[in-house]
Amino acid sequence: MTMVLTILINGLVFGSVYALLSMGLSTQYGVARILNIAHGEFIVLASFITWELVTDLGVHPLTAIAAAGAILFVIGFALHRTLFKRVRDISPNAAAFEGDAILVAFGVYFILQNLMRIKWGSQTTGYSFMAYPVSIGGAQFQARSLFVFAFAAVICVLYNLFLSHTRTGKSIRAAAQDPVAARMLGVKINRVMAICFGIGGFLAACAGVLISMNQTFSSVTGLNYTVIAVIVVVLGGLGSIRGSILSGFILGIVGTAVNSYDPSIMLVVFYLIILVLLIVRPKGLLGR
Amino acid sequence: MLKRTLSLVLAALFIAAALAGCNKPSSNDPNSTPGGTDATPPDPGKQSIVIGGVRSQSGPLAIFDQTAFGPLYRMWADEVNADGGIYVEEYGKKLPVELKIYDDKSDVQTMTQLYEQLCLEEQVDILLPPVSTAALFAAAPIAQKYGYLLLSAEGGATSLKEQIEVCPNFFSVLSFSDTQVPDLVTLCEEQGITSAYIVYIEDLHGTEYFTATENAFAAAGIEIKAGKPIPLDTTTTDFNAIINDARASGAQLFATYVYPDQAIPLAATAIALEYNPDIYLMGSGGSFDFIKGALAGGSGVSPDDMVEGMMAWGAWNGRSAPEAQAFLDKFDAYFGPDGQNILNNPDAGDKEVYHDWWGHICYQTVFEIIQEAIEKTGTLDNQKLVDYIANNHFQTSLGDTWFENNMLAAECYYGSVGQWQNGEFEVVDVGSRRTADPIVPKPAWAKP
C-alpha cells in the first residue's frame, strides 16, 4: 500500500511538472505554429533568475515568478514580434514557415544556452528550499515536492480559466482553431500570436521557478526539458492544452512506477508510449 | 501536419548535430607546423608548441572542462609562457605553448572526428586528453594510429588497461576503481560497515565502479543490498524512490557512482528526506568545493556544515605532502585566494574555478610530466616522449611519480577516500596517507 501511495503521489508531482513544462510549448505551437526548441532554455533561465534572487536577496522563490515571468513574457513577445513574424512574412506557406521557425528556434536555443554558460558557467546549481520530509500514510515525501505539485496544479487550473473566461483567452482559442475566421471576426492575429509566445515564456518561467525549488539545474539541462515537453505535447495532441495536462500526469505516474522498478529504462518507456500512440491515435490523446 | 512537423524536428536535430561537428578551434596560429609523427628535420622557424585538445566545453560534461582539467591546462600554458616557454633542444630555443582547443559538445563521435582532424590535418605537437572514460577509450586508438603521446585526465577504468595493450602511447593518470575500491573496502572493514546500497550511472564509469565494488565487497563479506542503475539524463528520474528504497534497505553505506549532475540532486533529496546513513559516499563531484554551495545555497546553513561528514573519492589536501601544498599555493595564487571566496562570487561566470580534491593534483602532473619529458629528451618527437615517460620517474606535485604498465603507480596517489570535515577535504584512507580520522557514522545533515 505504501508503495502504491508513493508511486501515486510522486507520479502526481512529476506529472504536474511535466504538464507545466509542456503547456507553454503547446500554447506557442497551437496558435503561432512554432515548435519552440528553445523552450527548455527559457525554463533554465527562469531557474537561474530564481537562484540569483534566492541566494543573493534571500527572497522566497515564489516571488521570482513575478520577475522571471515578466522577463520571459517580454522576451517571448519580442522574439515573435521580431524574429518569428519576419520569418512568417517571408515564408511562402504555412508548412515552410513551420520548418523555418524550428531552425530559428534552434538558433535561439544555441544563443541562450551559451549566454547562460558564459554568465553562470556549466556547473550544477541549486538552492535549498523546504528541505524536510513529510509523512503521508507511512510513506515519506519531500515537503518541497508537495509544494511544487500544489502550485503547479493551481497554475494549470488558472491557465485553463484564463483561456475559457477572458477575452484574450477566447481570442487565443479562436486563433488556434481557425486563424482566418478569427481574423475576420476582428481578432488581431499577429498580436495574439505574439501574446501566445509571451505566455509561453511566462509559463516556462513558472516551470523554471518551480523546478528550481525541487531540482538542481545547469546551463546545459534545457534541452532535456524541451525533449520531455515535446513528448508530453505530442502525446497530448499538438496544440491541445488540456491534452498536455492529461498526458503530463499520465507520463508522471507511469514514469514513477517504472522508476521504482528500473530508472534507467524510463525514457525508453516514454518513447514506447509515443510509438504506440502514433500508430493507434496519430493526433494524440486530445488532438484534433 | 504532425508527420511533417516531426520530420522537420528530426531534420533540424540532424543539422544541429552536423553543426556541432563543425566547430572552429579557439585559436589558430598560421605559423604552427606539423608535429607529432613528422620525421622531417625540425623546422628552425618554429614559433610555438601547439597543444591540441578536444574538450567538452558545452553539453553535460562541460562541468569538467570548466572545473577539472580545464583550469589546469590554462594555468600551465600561462605559467610556461610567462617563463618564455619550454626549452626544446632540437630547436635550440624556448618555445611558448599555444592551445588549440575544440569543443566536442560532450559527444564522443564529435570528439573522434575532431581528434582525427587535430592529428591528421593540423598535426599539432602534443595532444591533450578528452573528457570522460568513454571518450578516452575512443581517443587512445586515434592517438596511437598517428603516433601521438596521450596522457589521460578526467576518466579512468579497468577496461582502459585493455586499450593500453594495443595503444602503448596511452598513459592513465587519474586514480579509478582499481586503486580506490580496495581502499574503500579497508576503510569499511575498519569502521565495521557490513552493508551497502549503491546507485550507479549506466556508462563505463558507473558500471565499472559498481562491478569492482560488487566483487571487492563480496570478498570482504560486505553485503550489497541493492545496486540501482540510473540513466545519464536524470530529468525524469525520481530520486525520492531511490532514497526511500535505500533507507528501507537499512544499508550502512550509501554510495553514488554517478556524475555531478546526478550526484547533487541525489544528495539534495537525501537531505530533504533526512536520509543519513553511516557513510554517504558521493562519487564524481563530491570532491569539488562547488558541491557545498550547490547543496547549501539559500538554506541558511553554512556550506561547510552542509557537507560535514560526507565522503567522496579523492583525495588529497595541503597536508598530504609539501609538494601538494606547493601546488595548492600556486593554484590559489592563480585562481583566487581560496574556494570560499570563489563560492561567494556567483558573478564570476566561466572564471569560476573550484578546488577538486581528487583530480586537480593528478591533472597537474600531466603537464609536469610532459614538460619534463620534452626538456629532458630535447624533442617534440612523440615516440621519444612515450619511451621516456614509460621508463622514468618524475618529481611532480604528487612527489615521486612513475608509471607501471602505463598506469600511474597506485603508490603515487595521496589517497582514495576523502571526507569533508570542518570545510576541509580530509584523506581518511586507512594507513599513513590519512590526514584525519574518519567520522563514522556521519553527523546528521545540518539544518538551518
Describe the structure in your own words.
The complex is a heterodimer of chains A (288) and B (448). In chain A, strands 1-2 form a two-stranded antiparallel ribbon. Chain A has a single domain, classed as ABC transporter involved in vitamin B12 uptake, BtuC (Orthogonal Bundle). Chain A contains 11 helices and 2 strands; from the N terminus they run H-H-H-H-E-E-H-H-H-H-H-H-H. Chain A is globular and about 60 Å long. Helices cover 77% and strands 3% of the residues of chain A. In chain A, strand 1 and strand 2 form a beta hairpin. In chain A, helix 1 runs parallel beside helix 5, helix 3 packs antiparallel against helix 4 and helix 3 packs across helix 8. Chain A is an all-alpha fold. The radius of gyration of chain B is 22 Å and the shape is globular. Chain B has 2 domains: 206 residues, 3-Layer(aba) Sandwich (Rossmann fold), CATH 3.40.50; 172 residues, 3-Layer(aba) Sandwich (Rossmann fold). Chain B is built from 16 helices and 18 strands. In chain B, strand 13 and strand 14 form a beta hairpin. With 448 residues, chain B is of the alpha/beta class. Chain B has a 7-stranded mixed beta sheet, sandwiched between helices. Classes of the chains: A mainly alpha (288), B alpha/beta (448). Chains A and B meet through helix 1, helix 2, helix 4, strand 2 and helix 5 of A and helix 1, helix 2, strand 9, helix 9 and helix 10 of B.
